[in-house]
Amino acid sequence: MRSVKGKEWYQADEVAQEYDSKRFSKGGRLIDRREKEAVLAALGPVEDKNVLEIACGTGRFTVMLAQEGANVVGLDISRAMMVQGREKAREAGVADRIEFLRGDAARLPFPDDHFDAVFAMRFFHLADTPAKFLAEMARVSKGQVFFDTFNDQSLRVAYNWLLPMGSRLYSENDVHRLLDDAGLELTDAKHDFVVPFGFYRKVPNGIARPFRSLDLTVGNSPVGDDIASVSYWNANVTGASEAESRATNRASDAE
């Protein structure tokens, strides 16, 4: 994956070895659980689906989807991260359902309309050329594309400059332009985490839980979506919904 902020940092062996323990221990377990819920809710039943994950990292989503019955390709720039992912897959007994590939997200090595669904988590905040990446995701998907962004009107702004890899923040208009340019039609959007991820990672789980309850209360208020630090975007390739509907109707007529 080229044109990614901090890609040297991301590929370092020591970063890969400590990635999960630093981000998804303590209060970070709340983040891990919520992100996995978001992916499963968006992709729906995945049994026997062919799914591509961009920036699969250590394979926490890749393995989860394989356990749900999907056939998954995980693409990442970091060999060290994929070593961790392959080990997770072996331990979970799903290595036969996953293929890990090192590759460039701006030039995906797959033909058009190759996957049932394509998704990326924790990727677009690092992308210097998001339009190119999203266009490639749309090209290789038969229908669904799912991804998350960090938002520019949230508390994430307050500590963004401290991050070693930098971070790109998006407005809602930014995302809509990206979707339009990629030939994608938004089908659903969810907004979450008024309190940014960095806070949860720093505190014990017992402290994080009451903050998460408060976070959800504020998030469910009229201003919640406007100040959420994370958004989950679910989209279809333009025309895919109509094509699926026609196929369903043809099948019904044949019966």
From TrEMBL:
Signal peptide: none annotated. GO terms for molecular function: methyltransferase activity. It comes from the Archaea. Keywords: Methyltransferase, Transferase. The keyword Methyltransferase applies. One of its GO terms (biological process) is methylation. This is Methyltransferase domain-containing protein. It comes from Haloferax marinisediminis. The lineage of its organism: Archaea, Methanobacteriati, Methanobacteriota, Stenosarchaea group, Halobacteria.
